[in-house]
Write a structure and sequence with these properties.
Elements: H1 2-28
Length: 43
C-alpha cells in the first residue's frame, strides 16, 4: 500500500513540475524572433 501511495505522489509531483516548467518557458518566450537566423548576404 505504501508503494502505491508513493507512486501516486510521484506522478502528481512530476505532473506539477512539468506544468511549472512549461509555464516558465512560455513566459520567457514573449518576444518573437524578428531577426533572420542566417545572414546569406546579397545574392
Amino acid at each position: 500500500m505504501r508503494i502505491a501511495i508513493a507512486a501516486v505522489a510521484g506522478v502528481v509531483l512530476a505532473a506539477l513540475a512539468s506544468v511549472g516548467v512549461v509555464q516558465v518557458v512560455n513566459a520567457s518566450q514573449n518576444e518573437p524572433v524578428t531577426k533572420p537566423l542566417h545572414n546569406y548576404g546579397s545574392r
